[in-house]
Design a protein that fits this description.
This protein is an all-alpha fold and about 140 residues long. The chain has one domain. Helix content is about 90%, strand content about 0%. The chain has 5 helices and no strands. The two termini are about 20 Å apart.
Length: about 140
């Protein structure tokens, strides 16, 4: 299998793993934490958990799909995961919550939305950030 194909498959798997965790955490955030503490504090509480899951998920996918330590395969993995996440979030927002694309974009301009987006960017960068360090540790 071509290395970039492996990276794309790793990225899609990474997305699926983290999206499943995020879906469960999001349900808790929306139903329990946000009504009690507000949307921003709820995202502040959720973010470390989702980023921890992202770190483990990224490493597992890197290992499972044998994604190379170079910038191109790791960026491809993170990029594929990020695109899949944005498509899934937009679709879920539209179909489950009836939000338009404009409303979804405006939600990212709130403090909670901006923090969530920052976490999603870190999610996308984790394969690159973990790249050389993880590869060196595995030798």
């Amino acid at each position: 299998m071509h290395p970039l194909t492996r990276a794309i498959l790793a990225g899609l798997s990474y997305f699926a793993l983290v999206f499943a965790v995020g879906f469960a955490l999001g349900a808790v955030r929306v139903s329990l934490a946000a009504p009690r503490f507000g949307a921003f504090v709820a995202v502040v509480i959720e973010t470390p958990f989702i980023l921890t899951a992202s770190g483990f998920g990224s490493l597992w996918c890197i290992d499972r799909f044998r994604v190379g330590a170079g910038l191109a395969p790791r960026a491809t993995m993170g990029g594929a995961a990020f695109v899949a996440l944005m498509v899934a979030e937009t679709g879920l927002s539209a179909f489950a919550f009836g939000r338009s694309l404009t409303e979804q974009g405006l939600a990212l301009l709130t403090p909670a939305g901006a923090l969530g987006l920052a976490g999603q960017v870190v999610f996308a960068l984790l394969p690159v950030l973990q790249g050389r360090r993880w590869a060196a540790a595995r030798r």
